[in-house]
Amino acid sequence: MKQKIIPILSILTGVLAFLLTIQYLKGKQKEFDTMKQRLMAGTRQIEVVAAAEDIPHGMKLRENDLGLIKIAEKDANDRVVLREDASRLLGKKTLLPLMKNKAILWSDIEGGTVSAMGLSGMVQPGMRAISIQASGAAAVSSMIQPGDRIDVLGTFSFPSKVNPTEMETVTLTVLQDVSVLATGQITARQSGSKRPQSGPAGYSTITLEVTPRESELLVFAQQTQGRLTLSLRNPGDVSFEKDLPEVNFRELEKRLPELNQFRQRNIRGKKD
């Protein structure tokens, strides 16, 4: 009987030691997570693309291969793949094995380096990159940066609809929710997530990603001696305003009170 009890006690002791070790490791993991949270507190974080699972080299990336993780902005460099560039990885082959939940770098992907892809590699299939003149106040005091979303407004001189022999100034929304690929010579990849800390950088041109039809429209708008102004959007705002009116002096004079009331109701409704 004694001989049977000793092995049982040994097994129970081993199980207890195993459970205590797991409990100890969980406690240490919790301490580590708490310390990490404290270190990250107050540090701005950004979302970058990571491998959703372990991926061997030579594999073509699919949508379900990709996930997102957060890293400190100060630790980011121009090799990390930002959230908005995730779709550009699809169909690309991996040059190295990718580990689960580890940030994917452009250098991990075939033809994915900034020097290899350039601006053309940032343009999605079926889209076009086109540069327009915009600086200063026309570009929200040069605060617009690569990766932002904007609306394009145009102010033109047209023959008056009331009196065709006279010219009148008209402002209208030309395009909505357009992606900014570059400001001046700086692209989204070159700037990465690190934006200027000492004030906006100057530039005179902005490069947009548009459809072929929209590129024709923008070229025509610039050639008619019109003035283009850019309106900055919240990155999460993908709304589309239908039936926006052309604004001339008569329209402005007639609708100014209505426009102010609409803005106030809209703001209050979102706060509530």
Helices and strands, with pairings:
Elements: H1 2-40, E1 45-51, E2 66-72, H2 114-117, E3 128-133, E4 149-159, E5 167-183, E6 186-187, H3 188-191, E7 205-210, H4 212-223, E8 227-232, H5 249-271
Antiparallel strand pairs: 1-2, 3-7, 4-5, 4-8, 5-6, 5-7
Structure, explained:
This protein is about 30% helix and about 25% strand. The protein has helices at about 1-40, 115, 190, 210-225, 250-270, and strands at about 45-50, 65-70, 130-135, 150-160, 165-185, 185, 205-210, 225-230. The chain starts with a helix and ends with a helix. The protein is of the alpha+beta class and about 270 residues long. The chain is built from 5 helices and 8 strands. A hairpin with a 2-residue loop joins strand 5 (about 165-185) and strand 6 (about 185).
Short key terms for the protein model shown above:
alpha+beta; 2 domains; 272 residues
Structure described in brief:
The protein is of the alpha+beta class. 30% of the residues lie in helices and 23% in strands.
Number of strands: 8
Shape: elongated
CA radius of gyration is 28 Å
| Distance from first to last alpha carbon | 75 Å
Structural class: alpha+beta
Task: List low-confidence stretches.
Answer: 192-199
What does the average pLDDT come to? 79
Summarize the main sheet: 6 strands, antiparallel
In helices, the fraction of residues equals: 25-40%
How many helices? The count is 5
- Give the topology string: H per helix, E per strand: HEEHEEEEHEHEH
**Count of domains:** 2
- Content of β-strand: 15-25%
